[in-house]
Amino acid sequence: MSRRQRTLAAPAELSGAGLHEGRGVTARLLPAPAGTGVVFRRADLPGAPEVRVAPDSLGEAARRTQLVHGSAEVHTVEHLLAALLAAPVDNVLIELDGPELPGLDGSARPWVQVLQRAGAVEQREPRRTLVLSRVVSVAWAGGSLRAEPGPGLELDYTLDYSAHGLPPQRVQARFPGTDFAAELAPARTFVLAAEARELQAAGLGRGATPENTVVLEPGYRPAHGSLRFPDEPARHKMLDLLGDLALLGADLQARVVAVKSGHRAHHELVRKLAAELAGDEAA
User: Fold this and answer.
1) Is 75 a catalytic residue?
2) How do residues 147-194 score in pLDDT, each as one tens digit?
3) Among 51, 55, 119, 60, which residue's Cα sits nearest to residue 87?
């Protein structure tokens, strides 16, 4: 059974530097009418162009989720989208004065906190729902991703860096059921120490700091500070997966099993799920 749509009860705002671009940006989250979905508005560009959260808006940026409409781009949206999906908040207009969302502490926790302060209100229209009726799968660069019929949304993520001498980590979650704010939202962005310099040389992580990015030494030891969970890297990967599933624009009832998957595999799965949703709605 579908639920009713929800939007914010009050505006909310967060500022900070983007994880990859490194530019300061302010994100203003505004209530929106039913049926709006999640929409980004680039207030810093001429005409304030809007970019909808939808599979056909996906770009090709590395190691993050990028949305594109015409010349307008929005980067690193996955942490906010995960927080919105878990809240849930379905309809929101997000005004940005830059191309990338604030990285904050590298997790979704600050987004959860600002959404909790703003509150949410129910709207009259029903939320779109995909009740998956068959298996949909993706294989990508040594990883796999499989969605199969299930009674609610269940996620099962296995992080496997055996090639780097690190033991696999596995996390599972169920929505509703899992306390997103306590168990997944605090998990931070991470990078293997062996990759850090190479990624920065490629122009990524220009806003990365010890406060927002965990650099992992051998044995899952952080180069600075301590982990928030023993399996924080796997939890962050699940956080990213949840944020990418929000691109569907509908509640998903399925069991999603991911092994070594990243954003591009998630995006391909969402495209396939969107085709299933369109078929259901056309029937």
Assistant:
1) no
2) 999 989 999 999 998 887 788 999 999 999 999 999 999 999 998 887
3) 119
Distance CA 82, CA 72 (A): 22
Q: How far apart are CA 157 and CA 238, in angstroms?
A: 6
Beta-carbon count within 10 A of 124 CB: 7
Catalytic residue of the set 20, 75, 263, 267: 263
List CB contacts of 78: < 8 A, sequence separation 6 or more. 64, 65, 239, 240, 243, 244, 263
| Residue where the block lists tokens 């004065």 | 97
Q: Where are the alpha helices (DSSP H) in the chain?
A: 78-86, 109-118, 180-183, 193-201, 232-245, 263-282
Q: Give CA–CA dist 200/193, Å, rounded.
A: 12
Q: How far apart are the first and last CA of the chain?
A: 17
Q: What is the pLDDT of residues 66-75, one digit of tens each?
A: 999 999 999 9
User: Residue 198: CB partners within 8 Å, gap ≥ 6?
Assistant: none
Return the ∠ at Cα 196 (arms to 192 and 201), rounded to 5°. Answer: 155
The C-alpha angle with vertex 112 and arms to 105 and 240, in degrees rounded to 5, equals: 65
